[in-house]
Structure formats: structure tokens, C-alpha cells
Amino acid sequence: MRTTGLRDYLDGPHKAARDVVRAGLSANAELLDLSLRLPRDEYRDKVLDVMLDVTAEGHPARGFPKEFGGEGDLGGFIAGFETLAFGDLSLMVKAGVQFGLFAGAILHLGTERHHDRYLADALSGRLLGCFAMTETGHGSNVQALGTTATYDASTGEFVVHTPTAAARKDYIGNAARHGRMAAVFAQLVVGGESQGVHCLLVPIRDESGTAMPGVTLSDCGPKLGLNGVDNGRIVFDHVRVPREALLDRYAQVDADGNYQSEIENPDRRFFTMLGTLVQGRVSVGGAAINASKVALTIAIRYGAQRRQFGAPGSAEEALLLDYRMHQRRLLPLLARTYALHFAQAELVDEFVRVFGDGSSEHDRRALEAQAAGTKALGTWHTTETIQMCREACGGAGYLAENRLATLKADTDVFTTFEGDNTVLLQLVAKGLLTDYRESFGKLDPLGTARFIAAQAVEIAVEKAALRPLIERLRDVVPNRSDANDPDAGLRDDAYHSGLLRFREEHMLSGVARRLKAGIDAGDEPFEVFNRCQDHVIAAGRAHVDRVVLEAFHAAVEDAPDELRDVLKDVYDLHALATIESERAWYLEHGRLSPGRSKAITALVNELCAAVRPVAVELVDAFGVPGSAVEVPMVVPSQHE
């Protein structure tokens, strides 16, 4: 297998953007060690310096309009941002705050006057900014934020205020040290009436770094990781900003204090405003997946070099990666990383299409759900992968010099920022339930009957076309024709997809019936949903598992001939390991027999053995810069 060809295929159409960032990371390789050697404030300043160096190369502007020095290349911008995760993650997060969140808010929520006045400075780093949404008392529930922005018609100003301790802006990147302006999300009050959450640009420091009058800034202090990011807290005491500070793409306030918006429904207006910021969620998911690539590159290279024990009487100890259990620890995670990589690439393509073509609200909602699900599974995967890689490297993996400790600490927060993963899977499931209701009505007896009939027709069509495969979805019974070949059909793509689709649809229909039964019984809606919450989350995860699987399958089908066979092995390993991880559910629901379940486990073992000879090449194809993975416990790879 040619590593270069696989790397080019993984990099996809945005290879040039990825390579620019790789080169920048290599040129600033010393940053990886500074988090351990420098005092916190010096480390933060060095992260800022490197971010400004990267800015000078032009990458951050890539995704912005050409009139502001950009290239209008959203896909390349996200690809480059993801690639930053190969290096110091504080740098990646700080760049995300500055360019993705602060500049992104100006671009997507502001209008021409905001663009002309602020965007060029934000993209050059001359104006450092914050994204002040989260509060001490409210994180995920943005609609309930406590900060207020009250319009004073007598002066033509908004008065931004923190009314309670719970309304303090918290965990805000760039707030503790470097930020001069904040995109502040607050309840907009006009003429004594609240219009819901809107965003305003509020100066928080002057050019000398002194806090503006009425603004109190403090440092969140040391964190589990990402200490190169100056997270801080902001309190506003009746801070006045001009009327033009309101980012008014979706709602305007005139000089007389008249509020107007083309989107009359306040809930729809709120979700439209937040939907324009989905890019952050897309980017964080991709960055997390790339962080798992770094950990796997280190651990698999180490496992292919480190020897321990061996056959009795043998003078040579065995390589760690030749042990089946070591393969079991790492190679299914490698396969899932490939699957998530291709799912992320598919998501980025959809993001560019939706925001480039001015697609419908339905398309945007679908994109938000896809981004939420991919981010949730991607970041959970990263946490699991880095922990397993640390364990697989033993005591060496625990040493900070070998980088896994820093990776573990820096990525831990990914599961809760840009949306708590559990809340995000609720968003996925709610979207599916909405589509379910629209397709099958209110699930009255007639609607349910139609649903069951539709399933029956679909199964009949599948049986006619692929009868042997569909038959294998049922329990294996003794003396069947495949009794002597227990893994017959287990590598068929339709078998994998069929099982995952069945699980998704069964869970979705089940939770829909439970919700309807509770409402029909007259129970309070919140309590009904709360009783089903675990079922809702499971349905959302089952959906994303299926989407990821099918994205990987499509990538294998589209791969060049010389790559398809090895990618098919990795795909099969991912598919069967996913089914194996849920085999208790499939056994409970009659989709696997005990014999079939054992055959899947045996085949996962065989696939681990098949992937083992190319495992180092598979991680080298990620293209992680040598400075990030050539740690003391690992010698350089021969495949670079």
C-alpha cells in the first residue's frame, strides 16, 4: 500500500489547505513543549504569538469573503482548522475563538457596516475578540441567558448589564488576558419588552489592555488542560454601547426604539441566529477526530517497536502489536477513526453546500443535527481513544514528554464545549422524531398501521433483491446451509447497514410510541420526555452510528482501486466492531443468535490480524507532522 496515495485520499479536495497548516505547525514545533516549561501567562502569550504567525500566512481568512482578504473557501478553512489539532490544542482553540466564533459572529450575524468596520481587523489579529455566550448559570440553555441589553431611546444606546451572579459570562476564551471586544449574547429589551437573545459587540479593554469602565474581568485560573487559552469571566455594570453595536442581520432597532425582524416567531428567529454559528460545532468535531489520530499514531508506532515477553524458549521478545489483545485495544479504534474521518468529510461537504447555496430552513436544520451528532460521537471517541492509547503505552504513555498526557488533558473539554454531547444527541433525536411525526402522522392506529405496512413493503423489496443477506439478519438456526461457515455473509455491506438501520428505526419507533402514550395519558410533557430521555439519547446515537457507517462505505466505494482492498478491511473491522459492541441489544431483539454473535467476535479478531501488517502505514497516512508524534518513546516511522 502506498502511504502517499492514502494520505492524498484522506486529505481530499482541501489537501493544499491542510498542507499549509502542517507546514506552519512544523515551523512552530517548540510550542508543544512550552506548556510544560513556561509560566501560564508566558505560555498564553506565546500561543498568541504563534496564532498571529499563522494568521500572517493567510489561513484564517481562507473561509471569509474575498473583499476582506479571504478566499471564500469554507471547506478549506474548516480543513485547515481541523489540521491545527495535530499541534498544540491551545493554539487550535484560541484560533477557533478568534476566527471561528468572534469573527464568525460578526460575519454571520452582522451586516455590511459591521463587516466593513471590524472584519479585516479581526481576521488580521489586530482586534482580538471573545465570544461571550456561556454564563455561570446557563450553558446549554442559551434562551435563558440572564445578561440584558436594554435600549435607551433618549441616548440611542444599549445598556448591557449583568443583573445576577448567575448571569456572569464564564469560561470565555480570550477574556482573561488578550481580548479587546466581545460578541455578547444578551436578552434584548426594547420599549420594556424582551425580544429574546441577540448579539452585540461590546468593547471590554482599551488598546493598552485596561478594562473598560463598567467591565470587570477575571481569570478562570488553571484548568485541566488548554492552559494556553486565557479563559475568563466578564461582568457588565450598566455598560453603554451605541445602537449600531447590535449585530442586526436578523433583527433591527431604529433610533426611536422600534424593534423589527423579518422572522416574526421569536423561537424561529433565535434558532436561525444560532444556526448560522454551526460552523464551530462542525470544526470542533473534526479537530477532535484529528487529535485521536495523533494519539493513535504515537501508540501504534510504539506498539510496532516495543517488545515484551514472547514464546517460551525464544530468544526474541514479541512486538506489542503482535499480541491479539493489543490489536483489540487499538485497531478497532483506528478503524472507527477512519470511519469518523469520512463522516466528517461528508459533513463538511454538506456544510459548504447548505451555506453556499442558500438552502432551505429544512436543509439547515438537518445540517445542524448532523453536525451535532458527528461532534458528539467524534469527541467521545477521542476521549476513549486517547485513554486507551495511554494505557497501551504503559508507563511511557504516562510521561508528559510522550505527549499523550497533554492530549488527554487538552481534549477532555471537547465533550462539553460547543454543546454538551448528551444535549446534542437529544437535538439529533428530536429532529428524527419531528420527521417521524411528519411521515406517519400522530401515530394513531391508522398511522401506525401504515408505518408497519411500509416496513413490510420495504423488507419484501429487499428480500426479492438480496434474499440471502436479509435471511441472515435473522437468528442462525442449527443445520442451516451455512452451519459449516459461521461467518458467511458477515462481510456483506448490506448486512452491516441492515442491522444498523433496524436498530435505529426500532429505537425511534419505540421512543415515539412511549412519548405518545405518556401524552395521551395526560401526563405533563416534560415528565414524559424525562422518563424517556435515555431512550431518546440511544435513538440519536443509533442514528449517528448508521450515518457514520454509510459514510465510510461510500468512501470505500469511491476509493482508487489500489486503496480499496485495504480500506474494505478497515471498513469491515469498524462495522463488525460496532455491531459487536451492541450485540446484547441485537440478541435481546432477535437479530443475532448466540452462534452468530460468537462468529462476529471471531471475525473481528481475524480482521485485527488482517489490519495489523498495515497498521503503521494507516496511521502514517494521517499526515501528522513529525514534530507532533516523534516523541522520545517512538523512533521516526520508515513510511514518511
UniProtKB/TrEMBL annotation:
Keywords of this entry: FAD, Fatty acid metabolism, Flavoprotein, Lipid metabolism, Oxidoreductase, Peroxisome
Residue span, Acyl-CoA oxidase C-terminal domain: 505-625
Species of the source: Kribbella pittospori
Family according to the record: Belongs to the acyl-CoA oxidase family.
Cofactor(s) the protein requires to work: FAD
An example molecular function term from Gene Ontology annotations: acyl-CoA oxidase activity
GO biological processes: fatty acid beta-oxidation using acyl-CoA oxidase; lipid homeostasis
Name this protein carries in UniProt: acyl-CoA oxidase
A Pfam family annotated for this UniProt entry: Acyl-CoA_dh_M
Domain Acyl-CoA oxidase/dehydrogenase middle stretches: 130-239
EC numbers for this chain: 1.3.3.6
Sequence ranges assigned to domain Acyl-CoA oxidase C-alpha1 in this UniProt record: 275-433
Domain of life: Bacteria
Domain Acyl-CoA dehydrogenase/oxidase N-terminal intervals: 50-125
Subcellular location: Peroxisome
InterPro entries xrefs: ACOX_C_alpha1 (IPR055060), Acyl-CoA_Oxase/DH_mid-dom (IPR006091), Acyl-CoA_Oxase/DH_mid-dom_sf (IPR046373), Acyl-CoA_oxidase (IPR012258), Acyl-CoA_oxidase_C (IPR002655), AcylCo_DH-like_C (IPR036250), AcylCoA_DH/ox_N (IPR013786), AcylCoA_DH/ox_N_sf (IPR037069)
